[in-house]
Specification:
Layout lengths: L1 H10 L4 E8 L2 E9 L15 E2 L5 H13 L9 H4 L15 H5 L22 H6 L19 H15 L3 H13 L20 E3 L5 E3 L10 H4 L2 E2 L1 H12 L3 E2 L2 E2 L3 H8 L3 E4 L2 E3 L4 E5 L2 E10 L2 E8 L4 E7 L6 H14 L7 E2 H11 L2 H14 L4 E2 L3 H12 L3 H14 L4 H13 L3 H14 L4 H18 L1
Parallel strand pairs: 15-16
Antiparallel strand pairs: 1-2, 1-14, 3-6, 4-5, 7-8, 9-10, 10-11, 11-12, 12-13, 13-14
Helix pairs in contact: 2-6, 12-13, 12-14, 14-15, 14-16, 15-16, 16-17, 17-18
Length: about 475
């Protein structure tokens, strides 16, 4: 496990990685590797606190169900029953229920900008956010469709506050973290001890890992995103759920509440859907309940398998980490016992090579790996697409184009890779070439909607210049 943890860390170029695995109700493995912060080089440990991003949401659903148990609300209550100042431009907002928020069927649009660089941190932030929806319209009539919405969960901070009589963050600490023995967890970033704080990392302009200038915290997005926790505490959270609401002889929520939280309320297919915030699917015939997290500089995942009394949590302090992939690997190898071999992601080996030696060296390295070490690497061509867009986003247009063209060479029948070549030409302001490659993409897949839209916009722009 030590060697695998280090391998996962280096595969994704993570400054730090933390992992916990629980089997048969006992902590099987818990470790932090690497550093909390590239600038300070503070070592990672199982106490190091990560921004958990959307792993926050099941905590919110659990809190709501505690309030249901206390008789202070029901899942069928309308949001406006408790927050009468919540308004939207679409009159159907009045029909949104708490349950529809928790299973992403409210129709409330997702957040477009978290405004991490201008965080609100005062106690009035939650109510101000609820009052900010006045000009927004719903994506669909509540209860008729399913679409992931961080914004709808963020409304729950003010609802929990108004129903409980304390701030959202204080409620979570008093009613979940403290009784569950989660000693260092908090939704309020200013409470995170400096010595335990990790920092978010991303790629700089030369594709090297660096601490991000802005930390992903804004109190208006607390319920959807701002849980800060560590491996030690998340293992306590796992035990609480595997014991159906009880830990150390103390009941935090009832078994009836556990059943409500883990029963699918919107199905995608058999054994695959969303309950109350938890997503679920089968892994080798075992039901997994899980939630992932992704924000600037962080990737996380937590999941538990009730039949096996098992759970896994992974946390990485960069935003290229494929947390769900790592968690799935650990689950199969150490919980379900259907071993897989870990595979490196080739884009991380190529990212320095393309900038230092160019595309010919990249091609030679790729071909060598393909011929002699293919079992060690994930050669899914989508990984090259990642590399191309890393370059494109950082203004390395020629290098991005070279990678995309090599991508097409490797997989010439994939419309998406032709589309990527066109995107590079757009960035290079070569409109004629961009149109040519978008057209090639549509020849391969005439129903590729995003390409149709891009081509339409580009042609309209050309026609506008001609006029």
């Amino acid at each position: 496990m030590d060697s695998l943890a280090q391998l996962i860390q280096t595969t994704f170029d993570m400054p730090g990685f933390a992992v916990g695995v629980l089997v048969d109700g006992e902590v099987y493995y818990a470790k932090g590797v690497g550093v909390q912060d590239l600038d300070t080089q503070a070592p990672m440990s199982t106490s190091s606190l990560f921004h958990m991003a959307s792993v926050s949401k099941p905590f919110v659903a659990t809190a709501i169900m505690q309030l249901v148990e206390a008789g202070k609300l029901t899942l069928e209550d309308k949001v406006v029953d408790h927050l009468p100042y919540f308004k939207m431009a679409d009159e159907n907002y009045q029909n949104i229920t708490i349950k529809q928020v928790l299973n992403h069927t409210s129709g409330i649009p997702d957040v477009e900008d978290y405004d991490w660089g201008n965080p609100e941190i005062d106690d009035g932030a939650a109510e101000r956010y609820v009052r900010s929806f006045g000009e927004d319209t719903l994506d669909f009539e509540p209860g008729t469709d399913n679409s992931y919405s961080n914004a709808s969960f963020d409304i729950m901070a003010d609802l929990i506050a108004k129903v409980s009589g304390m701030t959202f963050e204080d409620y979570m600490t008093k009613h979940i973290f403290e009784p569950a023995g989660m000693k260092n967890s908090t939704f309020f970033k200013p409470e995170v001890p400096t010595q335990l704080a990790t920092q978010p990392h991303g790629m700089d302009d030369d594709l090297q890992m660096a601490v991000l200038d802005v930390y992903p915290y804004n109190r208006i997005h607390a319920p959807s995103s701002t849980l800060h926790s560590n491996v030690d505490d998340m293992m306590r959270w796992a035990m609480l759920y595997l014991n159906r609401g009880t830990i150390d002889g103390q009941q935090i929520f009832s078994e009836e509440t556990y059943n409500a939280l883990t029963t699918i309320t919107w199905a995608y297919e058999e054994h695959n859907g969303v309950s109350l915030s938890w997503f679920t699917f089968e892994v080798d015939d075992k039901q997994l309940y899980y939630h992932g997290g992704a924000d600037d500089g962080y990737r996380t995942f937590f999941g538990f398998l009730p039949e096996l009394k098992a759970a896994v949590v992974v946390m990485g302090n960069n935003d290229q980490f494929q947390s769900m992939s790592a968690a799935g690997f650990l689950t199969r190898n150490f919980i379900i016992k259907t071993p897989r071999q870990w595979k490196k992601r080739i884009q991380f080996d190529l990212k320095d090579l393309i900038l230092s030696e160019g595309i010919d060296s990249c091609k030679a390295f790729y071909r060598q790996i393909e011929a002699t070490r293919a079992d060690e690497y994930d050669l899914n061509s989508g990984n090259l697409d990642d590399l191309g867009y890393w370059l494109l986003d950082r203004g390395k247009h020629q290098e991005a184009l070279d990678i995309f063209l090599f991508h097409v060479e490797l997989d010439p029948e994939h419309a998406g890779w032709h589309d990527s070549v066109a995107d590079a030409y757009v960035a290079m302001e070569n409109t004629a070439k961009a149109i040519e490659w978008y057209e090639k993409a549509l020849e391969l897949n005439p129903e590729q909607d995003f390409t149709i839209e891009k081509l339409k916009e580009l042609r309209e722009a050309v026609e506008g210049k001609d006029e």
